[in-house]
Structures
1.
Amino acid sequence: MISTLLKRELKVARRNWIGLAIPLLFFIIVVSLFPFAVSPEALMLQKLAPGVIWVAALLSMLLSLEQFYRSDYQDGSLEQLLLMSSPTSVAISKIFAHWLLTGLPLVILSPLLGLLMQINYGFEHINHTWVLMLSLMLGTPTLCLLGAVGMSLTLAANRNGLLVSILIIPLYVPVLIFGASTVTASLESLRYNGELAILGAFLMIAIVFAPFASGRALKISVG
Amino acid sequence: MAKAWRWFHQLGSPKYLFQKTGQWLPWIWGVTLILLAVGLYYSLWASPLEARQGQGHTVRIMYVHVPAAALSMVGYIAMAIAAIVGLVWKMKMAFAVVRSIAPAGAAMTFLALFTGSVWGKPTWGTWWEWDARMTSELLLLFLYLGYIALHSSFSERSKADKASAILAIVGVINIPIIYFSVKWWNTLHQGYSVTQKGALAPEFQVPLFTMLAGMYLLFAALVIMRLRAEIILRNQKSRWVMEWATADTKKVTHD
């Protein structure tokens, strides 16, 4: 059931691939603003890099949420999907598709942004790019899961867009803290497995609760 | 047990709840005002100054700050419990309770932040510090405001109730996670000292506990007043509300 739903999500997304490219472009453009705003000095950028890249990733995840829920809600296909299968499996397929098409590309693009933000400046033998990728790999699924709950709640609301951000950003804070501090710890040549383990723990908690909550919320929005 | 359940079910009836809260309210307000008067007298005039940290009068801020901070968290937990009751037993009045707690809770959160800031300036030398407790309190304020924003953006009240109830529950699962994350991240605020033995001298305890009791009751009174307004708003079309409203205007015209 879930694989059928997932195939459908991917097919819909493939036919609207520009919509998926925009959040990625946003990710790159936001990060490249910082050298202009702060200073192009490498040491300064390196210090800012973990936070800037993580905040940009978080915002572009929020931007891309709309696409997976809004149009399905408006054209009524969400209602049909909910008739066809359980709300939780609809939520799971949407969350997984969202991560596959936004979270994973962010992870793949992140070395480029690490390069722009001089993440390896002054380090001869250590490569921080892997740590950045690893932290995003563990953190972005949690962002997808929490975002799905917020998006499902606001589908039937009159004002949207910004409303989701207000609801969800406070819940994103723990992920942001540990995601960015993983990279910072690596930059300071400290051990970072603890932070990665906590990111993993957040992911586990979110996997247990979020699909269920999101499914309930989808049902409320449609019903 | 059966009696307790019947009472619980009766509270689900808007009319019964409205009448009962109307009977309780004057008593709650009376006790609240007495407790707050006594508590404020003790905390503002009759309590000693803090000598050890050289804070002088700033210690008096604590008597408002601690109850406000406690209520900001208790309020959110109460909201989540009412939300669960509403979603599980489909009690409409539980949703009205959730909606009524939100503004009072947000106000308490703001009060805790404001008094903390005013206290922090002379004591720590800064209005704001990104410390664990302060940061999680700020995020709690955002959660309250998010709940209110979500609830007010639906045209259908039943959808608004259910969707924002889910948000309240998701928020309450996140509060400990947020709290421990920011605690690990940065800490300046002193530890929890109210219930530790010997941490607080008796002459500070009397005004603090009086103020705690007074503020809890004030919170209850504010929530009940809001709840009564919600009940009237949600049952505008039912007969007893019409009768209640017209009876009220008749009384006014007779006077």
2.
Amino acid sequence: MGIEQKLGNMGVVTTRLEQAVNWARTNAMWPMLFGLACCAIEMMSAQASHFDMSRFGMELMRASPRQSDLMIVAGRVSRKMAPVLRRLYDQMPDPKWVIAMGDCAACGGVFNNYAIVQGVDEIVPVDVYVAGCPPRPEALIDGIIMLQDKVKKEKLAQWA
Amino acid sequence: MAELAQIVEKLKTKFSGAMEDVREFRGEFTVRVKPDALVEICAFLRSDPDCVFDFLSDVSGVDYYPEEPRLGVNYHLTSTKFRQQLRLGVRVSLADPRVPTVTSVWPAANWFERETYDLFGVTFVGHPDLRRILLPEDFQGHPLRRDQPLVQEEVQFTHNFDEIDRTKPYAKS
């Protein structure tokens, strides 16, 4: 929007820092390899050849929280697992996002009892909730694309 | 002696003072005994050459509310030698839920009794390591008792969403 129009074609694209950073964050989002229940089967399926999440730049599941940006909570979280989940979240470097995949992670689902956390948003802050029991791989991919849209809209002023 | 009826008959004559109830249903026997005599009876059933209940399949707890005494512990015994199965049961009151441990007879009882303690609050006297096994260590109460609330939280619907949303303990980032 300026310099390249005045000086002609120099092979240069100008953009805003905000957009460049958000673009980089969006299209190489590394989810953490963290399956808790049957939703994990759908998550694996979403990564496999039939649905192929790598089309959207998020195929690289990291087994270590230190290397991941995105936590997909795939399944019900028991009260005993909750401190572990929170620790994994705390170990992830900023910026980080959380998707609550499935009804159990979103609100407890059918397990309204003493053993299950009633929604993982009591443990970690959730960005996107994906409904379904379990959600189809398409639904998960849709949730991730929704998260990408959210990340693209992040403002420089909010980073700090 | 491999017939279950004979084993139960032998048990009845030997421990006549400790028997509370003997029930038979389709060839299966359930023997309810007094908690004080439990270890003695278990040791007999395991070591007697006519019984040889050498395998403790399971220990389970029951809450018989509103019957009294309320809490029950059932021992599912198996004889691998004679291919017989027998259930032993004890009943204790909620006010004094103490049952002697049978870990001295079958070491396998260790974790089963921890589970029964965890979920029903039955205290196994003499147990070497009576801690919670399934639930988190800081859990309050014993959830499989009948007086425990059935649900964890009120379910959030459209009509009460805001009301519950205010009290829901959301996490900070």
